[in-house]
Amino acid sequence: MEHELVVVADEGALAREAASRVADAIRAERPRGETFDLAVSGGRTPWAMFTELARHDLSWETVRIFQVDERVAPSGDPDRNLTHLNRALSGAPAEVVAMPVEADDLDSAALDYARLLPPRFDLVHLGIGPDGHTASLVPGDPVLEVDDRLVAVTAPYEGHRRMTLTYPCLARADCLLWLITGAEKADALARLVRGDRSIPAGRVRARRSVILADEAAASGLQTNRLCG
Questions:
Q1: Helix or strand or coil: residue 43?
Q2: Which of 56, 98, 222, 227 has a CA that sits 20 to 30 A from residue 117's CA?
């Protein structure tokens, strides 16, 4: 899959650029009165993006935010992506459709969440780990081979089982927006750009893909830098 690659100076500039792009995409739906369906992963960078996005004048009532993945942990736990997402939104009245990771039967809960998902996402945010994982699609996990479900539950990874959107679900995205920061991600980013399918991130497919990276993550790549 081809990617549009944009490099900015640092993490702060990336958060502002990402927020501006998401805000523009939401505003583009306003004349049609349509719901903007966004799915978001966890991580420090997207939370910074949402902090910036919450400052924009938007029709928040038209925005639905789904989760790309979530750790199995209690409500309010600092390990939960939802905890940080709600804080970053700062009261912006978007509808947040949370993954039901507190359910006793997680596999059944994953099926329930799949029924709530839209036929297509306007935008799906993804990150990448140094090991090449994205969402909670991690190397060696059986969830990588799931092709008959939109949402699945992983084996334990870094102390938690996780609920995650699967490859068939991510393929519903009209646009992927990758936010990648830090020198520790440089090798994974290079492999993603090359289309290396040996890493989980390299197997994601969608209609369009935009990568926003800071200079540390993009070190060594041939890029056109966007000042920010």
A1: coil
A2: 56
Strand ordering across the sheet containing 162-165: 69-71, 162-165, 151-153
104 is a domain residue: yes
Cβ 82 vs Cβ 96: under 8 Å: yes
Instruction: Look up residue 94 and give its DSSP letter.
Output: P
- CATH number where 191 lies: 3.40.50.1360
Q: How far apart are CA 92 and CA 76, in angstroms?
A: 18
Q: How many separate domains does the chain show?
A: 1
Domain with 38 in it = 4-214
Q: What's the predicted TM-score (pTM) here?
A: 0.94
Residue pLDDT, tens place only, 105-119: 999 999 999 999 999
What is the signed CA dihedral for 46, 16, 182, 81, rounded to 10 degrees? Answer: -10
- Whether 221 maps to a domain, the answer reads no
In this structure, the strands spanning 69-71 and 151-153 are unpaired
The verdict on residue 227 lying in a domain is no
Least confident of 52-61, 114-123, 198-207: 52-61
